[in-house]
Amino acid sequence: MKLGSSLKKGKRGGGNNFTCGTCCGAVLKWRLMKTVTIEGMIAGHDKKPYRGVVEIDSKTGLILNVSKRGKGLKATYIFNDDCLLFAGFGDVHIHAREDDTGKQVYKEDYKTAADAALSGGVVHVSAMPNTPNPVVGKEQWTWHRARVKQLAHPVSILNYLGIDPKTKPLGKPGENFYKLYFGKSVGDLTVTYGDELDAILAKYKHHYVSFHVEYEPIVQAHVAGKTHTERRPLECVNEGLKILLPLIEKYNIRAKLCHWSIGGISFKMITAARKRGADIVLEVSPLHLLFDTSMTDADPSLWTKIQMNPAIQAPGHRKALIKGLKDGFIQFLATDHAPHTEEEKFSAFTKFTNEYPGKNNKEIAENIKKKDKELFFATCCENNHSGAPWLDTYGLVCAWLMNECGFTSQDIARVAAYYPGKFVSPFLKRQFPKQNFGKGFGEVKKGFVGSLTVLNLKRKTKVRREDLKTKVKWSALEGREMPGSVEAVFFRGKRI
Q1: Fewest Cβ atoms nearer than 10 Å: which of 263, 292, 432, 475?
Q2: Is 202 exposed, middle or buried (0-12, 13-18, 19+ CB in 10 A)?
Q3: Cis bond leading into 310, ω under 30°?
Q4: Three-state DSSP class for 338?
Q5: What's the pLDDT score for residue 189?
Q6: Average pLDDT, the chain
Q7: How many Å apart are CA 109 and CA 95, to the nearest integer?
Q8: What is the predicted pLDDT for the residue at 16?
């Protein structure tokens, strides 16, 4: 008999395994163990989606072949046309909180961050260095890489190294990637003034450096602002960029500008620098794509969920960011996943503790809201902790961009898979010396890692607290129905 002539399969739409009840069962089992085949609408950054089959080597976890659907080719998993198969999504900017001090693992740790990533369809993440004991040298770097190895999580976790006035590169250009905080955010890794930058960046000539860009003197001049946007105005980003760009060009830094928050003159400055040959790419966060000041004006309590550094701005800037991501001016959809507890997000209410003994900050806020809404809204606008968790909802944001913002599957493949994969792939061998990543992440092509993200663009998802994997268990999108869902995630051919 022909192999597979008595195969039994489930309905299309979800994944389904093939079984055999005849004497060829042993042969079929061997075949499925050796190769996993996944059929569906394959979405790449360089072509329109097409129905095809991805064959993945079960031993190496690498893609063996990608072909158009053909007669007689049996698939281990089949997805209908409501779903799109992307190369596994990657988030190049997250905060996992864990380090050797253990001081912030109550917010998040490597495992819970990676679990949240899988929940959002993300298969690789890059963790920022501003932990309580900053990752700035070999000792810290060794601890973090050992911890990631010990965890052995399906999500590949990479690490940035931090930069401050005392640091120096750990290795040659191209061996590691770095983060410089030009402006104070969370943690102690801060370069405050422009006159420090020249001497610092001279040491990082030709290196990959990601930048937080907010000029601290302007931030300090606006500390009395009523809202976070007034305390961190767009001028602090523009002035920081104005100081930074000439040094990026001077030292041939391979620069990535993090969580970009504004359009306007900043886009013009970046465009001009690129035309002069500067190597500059940009990230944008879901928070800056989904929220603007018109929303916080209508509901000031939103600040307790979406305060972030840099701050959200007027609607025109949000529209410019969406357009910039869609048009390719911005390369990365990167979350800046920054988990804080709800207690911390309502930290401005601590001043009322004496009036409400025995209650936590959120409970105090709820009591004040009932008693005095004006006072409640005013306190929500005060300075709370900056940052929000986003990994759980990464895939949902991608579906929102497609269904409500006109993004094509090529656009999503580019900003959520291709560019993130292109960013991390040169560093995989150094950070995972004993693992085989083939050509790396980012494309559904022969030789690349067989990790895939499957989005369902028809099945809506309501963001619920009980479904979140992040340790802090809240989301700025809680209660919101998103126009899509993460149908499946494959790790080296294995459905998780």
Answers
A1: 432
A2: exposed
A3: yes
A4: coil
A5: 67
A6: 92
A7: 9
A8: 39
Report whether 54 contacts 452 (CB < 8 A): yes
The CATH code belonging to domain 89-346+384-434 is 3.20.20.140
* Percent of the chain's residues with pLDDT above 70: 90
Q: Give the helix ranges, DSSP H, for 209-264.
A: 216-221, 228-231, 234-250
- Round to whole Å and give the CA distance between 422 and 415: 11
pLDDT of residue 13: 41
> Is residue 343 within 8 Å of 362, Cβ to Cβ?
yes
What gap in Å lies between CA 380 and CA 348, rounded to an integer?
Answer: 7
Check pLDDT > 50 for residue 12: no
The closest alpha carbon to 234, from 252, 260, 257, 211, belongs to 260
| pLDDT tens-digit map of 115-162 | 999 999 999 999 999 999 999 999 999 999 999 999 999 999 999 999
Tokens of 363: 């409970």
Contacts of 153 (CB under 8 A, 6+ apart): 110, 111, 114, 115
pLDDT tens for 331-390 read 999 999 999 999 999 999 999 999 999 999 999 999 999 999 999 999 999 999 999 999
Q: Give the Cα separation of 79 and 118 in Å (integer).
A: 19
Is the separation of the CB atoms in 24 and 3 below 8 Å? yes
Identify which of 162, 174, 150, 173 has the alpha carbon closest to the alpha carbon of residue 200.
162
Strand order in the sheet with 177-182: 161-163, 177-182, 208-213, 254-257, 280-284, 332-333
Report whether pLDDT(33) > 80. Answer: no
Residues 390 and 234: their CA atoms lie apart, in Å, by 23
> How many C-beta neighbours within 10 Å does residue 208 have?
21
Give the model's pLDDT for residue 69.
76
Beta strands 122-127 and 156-159: pairing type?
A: parallel
